[in-house]
Design brief:
The structure holds 2 protein chains of 2 kinds.
Chain A: E1 2-5, H1 20-28, E2 32-36, H2 47-52, E3 56-58, H3 61-67, E4 70-72, H4 79-82, E5 90-93, H5 101-110, E6 113-116, H6 131-148, E7 170-174, H7 178-190, E8 193-198, H8 201-210, E9 215-219, H9 222-229, E10 234-237, H10 252-255, E11 263-266, E12 287-290, E13 293-296, H11 306-335, H12 337-340, E14 343-346, E15 349-350, H13 353-359
Parallel strand pairs in A: 1-2, 1-4, 2-3, 4-5, 5-6, 7-8, 7-10, 8-9, 10-11, 11-13
Antiparallel strand pairs in A: 6-14, 12-13, 14-15
Chain B: E1 2-5, H1 20-28, E2 32-36, H2 47-52, E3 56-58, H3 61-67, E4 70-72, E5 90-93, H4 101-110, E6 113-116, H5 131-148, E7 170-174, H6 178-189, E8 193-198, H7 201-210, E9 215-219, H8 222-229, E10 234-237, H9 252-255, E11 263-266, E12 287-290, E13 293-296, H10 306-327, H11 329-335, H12 337-340, E14 343-346, E15 349-350, H13 353-359
Parallel strand pairs in B: 1-2, 1-4, 2-3, 4-5, 5-6, 7-8, 7-10, 8-9, 10-11, 11-13
Antiparallel strand pairs in B: 6-14, 12-13, 14-15
Helix pairs in contact in B: 5-6, 10-11
Chain lengths: 370, 370
């Protein structure tokens, strides 16, 4: 199969969908890899590294779309690319279609095979191609909280880990999933007092087993949230409900009970945010203050650390991409139920129920197309 | 004794020289405490808290200068305050006189008893009133490094702790003293690969005993620095030699051997910096990029975290201030050699040799004045 790696064109997106190490694996499996010039430069991979791995460097996205059987991206196709997508071409990338009606129609019209990273799902319901980004975002959340506690940044001037003789900061992490546990790990490593709230008792038991002694796992409920935010220096919103809008956990009314100069980090902002006062910000202008509380709500947090994020993402995507390339999309979907759940829009039909429902479109079960 | 607490007026200085808890102890020892209104606000202590602790709140610095027998301060007097200093009044604060001839002359002319935090020294050579700020600056150095590794900040986009399957960042810490060990502790807690260099083999043995296994210790040498900076994502300059200019550990022509987008944090900037390319920056504009390397060289790093820093500093200063207040400065210096080392300018004569030498002034051993 000919696999095409496109350069990302979305603003602030420096990741790339395949590393030179991934190209080498594709080649070993007998595939041809086309890489758009400079596609990896934001992630620290020069064209020469791809060439050494056996890729062919291509000057334009047009040529990649024209020649590839499967194109890989990190972000969804943007309007200038809509007309370049060919009928029957596999598009394997993050799509987030339920939030993008125009894109959904463009993919229907293109009659391409669109497999979304974010809906690939394991039998245990985990989302293997979202996990790596949650790991990055969770760990980053604490770094942001620590930084924006500085007074010149609007924070109230507390060192998260304290010093001998001075109380450390208190970190409240709402949600004990992948984001939450990674945030907690970092906050504990800094020496903070860390509360992590989750609604799943089994998960709390697991957290209790694996986390250090300065991490306190608690059952999530509104009363606990109300109580803990009063003493929190950093609150991390890490509640992600698959495919749905994040629940509102801290209302504007509740901000008044918090310390002036505390920091809210909303990792769920891509799903609408879990604080009432959250609105999406960018890495170039990441924070704003409401009622004295600093808000950090950068959408696509992992985009700030593209080297780490690219490797984390491609570690997870590569085995699926290789399987699709080796077997072709039909057999890959027939044999691997994880990939089957990734099928979103295929041959002009919407095969992912939530997307069809979101826009009142006809839903076609993927099995009818295999 | 009447103790006067002034509001700090130096830019970016948000600390205060006593907390309400400290004022309470002063009162218990029979002293009066005058606090300028608003002095503690940025550190989280409002006037009411000082009042409850038994302090008297005054509106103007002039009122405090005219009544107080000892001025307790974080920073040296400002030129606008020189006229307020009274002969025989004790002024106990950070002074850094070797860096400021005008302040030195003003203290001489006024006839005050100027005791400097930074030269109070224990018999083992340690500097107990600098240590708390090193304990704040060390962990902060890592937080800053993590933040400025973000691509939007000029860094090369690496997450300090990595994620499962992706290499963590490498942190090189030059100097294993107070700053270095505290930086290393936090960097290790975040999961980085940490190298600490020190020239003292006994110190390296101690670090080896107490640090976690992801902390690697090496004898400091130019060769070791040249080798390790090639792979470093963050370099922390933590080499501080009390009372003298810091050695230059990384020259400009070594920068080109480093990764583009690596971050240098110069914690020694207050002493001239340990990188040739360091120039002092502020919390409002903390970084600049030279030869592709991000430089963070904020003077007075701890000032960004006044709540933690104020408590850390006053935990250390209070017992000395109390001893001076209880015994009077002469008796305190006679009985406590640590405080004797703090005497910088007394009754119009310079009593700290390095200061006298710097400005070609006459040096009077403090013992002659006791």
């Amino acid at each position: 199969m000919i696999v095409g790696i496109l350069k990302e064109i979305k603003s602030e997106e420096n990741r790339v969908s395949m590393t030179p190490a991934g190209v080498e694996v594709m080649k070993q499996n007998g595939h041809t890899v086309l890489v758009e010039k400079a596609a990896g430069s934001g992630s620290g991979f020069e064209d020469a590294a791809y060439e050494k791995a056996g890729a062919e460097m291509v000057a334009t996205p047009q040529e990649i779309f024209q020649r590839s059987d499967m194109v890989m991206h990190v972000k969804e196709p943007l309007p200038p690319e809509y007309d370049l997508i060919r009928e029957g071409q596999i598009v394997f990338t993050y799509l987030h279609l339920a939030a993008a009606e125009e894109l959904t129609h463009a993919l229907i019209k293109a009659k391409s095979i669109n497999i979304a990273y974010e809906t690939i799902q394991k039998p245990d319901r985990s989302l293997p191609l979202l996990t790596p980004m949650s790991e990055v975002a969770g760990r980053m959340a604490i770094q942001q909280g620590a930084k924006y506690l500085e007074m010149a940044q609007g924070g109230h001037g507390v060192l998260l880990g304290g010093v001998p003789g001075v109380d450390p900061g208190t970190v409240v992490i709402i949600g004990g999933g992948v984001v939450g546990i990674n945030a907690a790990k970092m906050a504990c490593g800094l020496g903070a007092k860390v509360y992590i709230l989750d609604m799943n008792l089994e998960r709390l038991r697991y957290l209790s087993d694996v986390m250090p002694a300065n991490c306190f796992p608690l059952m999530a409920n509104p009363a606990t949230t109300r109580k803990l935010i009063k003493e929190a220096d950093v609150v991390v919103g890490a509640v992600l409900v698959t495919g749905a809008k994040a629940p509102r956990l801290i209302t504007r009314e509740m901000l008044k009970t918090m310390k002036q100069g505390a920091v809210l980090v909303d990792v769920a902002i891509d799903q609408g945010g879990c604080f009432e006062t959250s609105k999406a910000t960018t890495h170039s202008d990441p924070i704003y203050t409401v009622d004295g509380v600093v808000h950090y709500c950068v959408a696509n947090m992992p985009g700030a650390v593209p080297k780490t994020s690219t490797m984390a993402l491609t570690n997870a995507t590569l085995p699926y991409a290789v399987e699709i390339a080796n077997k072709g999309w039909k057999r890959a979907i027939q044999e691997n139920p994880e990939i089957r759940l990734g099928a979103n829009v295929m041959n002009g039909k919407v095969t992912y129920k939530a997307v069809a429902e979101a826009f009142g479109l006809d839903y076609t079960p993927i099995d009818e197309l295999l | 004794m009447i103790i006067g607490i002034l509001k700090e007026i130096k830019k970016d200085e948000n600390r205060v020289a006593i907390t309400p808890a400290g004022a309470e102890i002063m009162k218990q020892n029979g002293h009066s405490v005058l606090v300028q209104t608003g002095a503690g606000t940025s550190s989280g202590f409002d006037d009411a808290a000082f009042t409850r602790a038994g302090a008297e709140i005054l509106d103007t610095p002039a009122a405090i200068f005219s009544r107080a027998e000892m001025i307790l301060r974080v920073r040296e007097p400002h030129p606008g305050e020189f006229g307020h200093l009274r002969a025989g009044q004790i002024y106990f604060s950070y002074l850094h006189l070797a860096a400021s001839e005008p302040v030195t002359r003003a203290l001489i002319d006024s006839g005050v008893i100027a005791i400097a935090y930074e030269t109070v020294q224990k018999t083992d050579g340690s500097l107990p009133l600098l240590a708390p700020m090193s304990e704040v600056a060390g962990p902060m150095a890592i937080q800053e490094g993590a933040k400025y590794l973000e691509m939007a900040q000029g860094g090369h986009g690496v997450l300090l702790g990595g994620v499962p399957g992706v290499d963590p960042a490498s942190v090189l810490i030059l100097g294993g003293g107070k700053v270095g060990i505290n930086a290393a502790r936090v960097a290790c807690g975040l999961g980085a690969k940490v190298h600490v260099l020190d020239m003292n083999l006994e110190r390296l043995r101690y670090l080896s005993d107490v640090m976690p296994p992801n902390c690697f210790l090496q004898m400091a040498s130019p060769a070791a620095i040249r080798e390790l900076i090639k792979n470093a994502d963050i370099v922390v300059g933590a080499a501080l030699i009390p009372g003298s200019r810091t050695p230059t550990l990384i020259s400009r022509d070594m920068l080109h051997t480093m990764k583009r987008g690596a971050v240098l944090i110069d914690v020694a900037i207050d002493q001239g910096g340990c990188f040739e390319t360091s120039r002092e920056t502020t919390h409002a504009d903390p970084t600049y990029i030279l030869d592709g390397i991000v430089h963070y060289a904020v003077g007075n790093m701890a000032g960004a975290l006044p709540r933690t820093s104020t408590i850390a500093l006053t935990n250390a200063t209070l017992m000395y201030a109390l001893e001076i207040a209880n015994k009077g400065w002469r008796e305190a210096m006679k009985t406590n050699p640590e405080l004797r080392r703090g005497a910088n300018v007394v009754n119009g004569t310079v009593t700290f040799q390095a200061v006298a030498e710097t400005f070609g002034l006459e040096f009077t051993p403090i013992d002659e004045l006791l």
